[in-house]
Amino acid sequence: MTGAVLLALLPVVILTALGMVLRHSRFLEDAFWPQAERLAYFVLLPCLFFHGLATAQLEALPVRELALTLILSTLAVAALVVAARPLMKLEGPAFTSVFQGSVRFNNYVGVTLAAGLFGAKGIALAAICNAAIVPTVNILCVLVFARYGSARLTRAGLLRQLVTNPLVVGSLGGITFQMLGLGIPAGVEPAMRALGAASLPLGLLCIGAALEFRSVRHWMGPVASSSAMKFLAMPIVTLLVATALGLKGPALTTALLFQALPTASSAYILARQLGGDAALMAGITATQTVLAFAAIPLVLIGLGTVVQP
């Protein structure tokens, strides 16, 4: 298990580091990276989720147990973060960044690692994970922004943020095709598969290019709080829920993997749009991305041994 986890993590490290080199060496213009991230987020990654869910052999997978494990553990940790807010002594916008850092996850890293560990089955499991927690996390984050962010959202604004999220649309579209027994047309399927595959390397390059460490030293407390929730509380709660529901094997490993992922760079974009603390969000994202290279193997290997017979 240890060797498989480290081997799956290696391309993530390489591509993330390459993104940092390309950005700081000015090999590509700065204007390239926001457009590349937009392409990956709005087109490529939704294609990956749609294709993975529409074509997956879900009857052999514990869909219900995996989805419930992820949703219930995410809700539990979200409630814990909100309950702990008075102890953090943060202004509302700063708290929204800590909240996002505690529950939001990086899809690119998760899918890449799941595919590296379990191949096509890993992609199907990752698609189920995204279908379960992408809507859950986005609903929770938008509600927290509505309550604590500096930009107050109307009900129409809340609904628009939820129903237009490309990852939610892609996941629900794939589930719909799966439930109705519809096949992706023969001429479209290879193109969609290729677009989905392109999302992983491009997304990891964008992660490396977006890392920003300058603000970390000013926010040690909030960064530490969100990282503790992300890398300690979330995996432990996930393991407890999974054990209660009888989830095991590759599905359990994938659940633990997704709940130990660093927060996504899209959190920074959301913080700017909805009145959060964008500078703090950048620091949390950068710190968690680095910590994840140690935290993910520790979670998968350490907690995985707890449930082995």
Characterise this structure:
The protein is 80% helix and 0% strand. Helix 1 crosses helix 6, helix 2 (32-55) packs across helix 6 (107-148) and helix 2 crosses helix 9. It has helices spanning 2-24, 32-55, 63-83, 85-88, 92-103, 107-148, 155-163, 166-180, 189-210, 220-245, 249-258, 266-274, 278-307. Keywords: Cell membrane, Membrane, Transmembrane, Transmembrane helix, Transport. Its main location: membrane.
Ordered list of secondary-structure elements with their pairings:
Blueprint: H1 2-24, H2 32-55, H3 63-83, H4 85-88, H5 92-103, H6 107-148, H7 155-163, H8 166-180, H9 189-210, H10 220-245, H11 249-258, H12 266-274, H13 278-307
Keywords: Cell membrane, Membrane, Transmembrane, Transmembrane helix, Transport
Family: Belongs to the auxin efflux carrier (TC 2.A.69) family.
Main location: membrane
